[in-house]
Design goal:
With 138 residues, the protein is mainly alpha-helical. The chain has helices spanning 20-25, 35-42, 58-69, 86-89, 92-95, 116-133; strands spanning 72-73, 76-77. Strands 1-2 form a two-stranded antiparallel sheet. The protein starts with 19 loop residues before the first helix and ends in a 5-residue tail after the last helix.
Length: 138
């Protein structure tokens, strides 16, 4: 009698995904960049300018920051999402920040109108939705 070896199921690549919570919850392939959070906390300033070429993970990194610092993101608890990532191994001085701050995220990537008036109207709609989602911060 021979035992057959079952191949390990490969994780799906998250092509086109930019929501950190969805990637972790769906167990999609994720290159752990969570120590970026440590770098931001260690080099704290009031402003962080993140410049990278297109398709280089800016939105995903910002989403990761959102899920780390907020207690809830898009109605979902963020507790436990970072337990198996590098930031959890960096020490309690970093993990004590997890879920402790109000976070407001605004993305302009879907504003692609061809004229100023339409883009301005779309932007006003985006800002109105963000305002409605975060009334408790006021």
């Amino acid at each position: 009698m021979t035992d057959t070896i079952q191949p390990k199921r490969l994780q799906q690549l998250p092509i086109g995904f930019d929501d950190f919570g969805e990637i972790i919850s769906e167990n999609l392939y994720f290159v752990d960049k969570s120590l970026y959070i440590k770098d931001l906390l260690d080099n704290f300033s009031e402003v962080a300018l993140i410049t990278r070429p297109r398709r280089f993970g800016k939105s995903l990194n910002l989403s990761m920051l959102h899920y780390f610092f907020a207690s809830k993101a898009f109605g979902q608890s963020t507790k436990g999402l970072f337990d198996h990532l590098n930031i959890a191994q960096a020490g309690e001085e970093y993990m004590r920040h997890q879920g402790q701050y109000p976070v407001i995220t605004i993305s302009f990537k879907d504003i692609k109108e061809r004229n100023f008036e339409a883009a301005s109207a779309n932007l006003a709609g985006v800002l109105a939705r963000v305002f409605d989602e975060h009334r408790e911060v006021l």
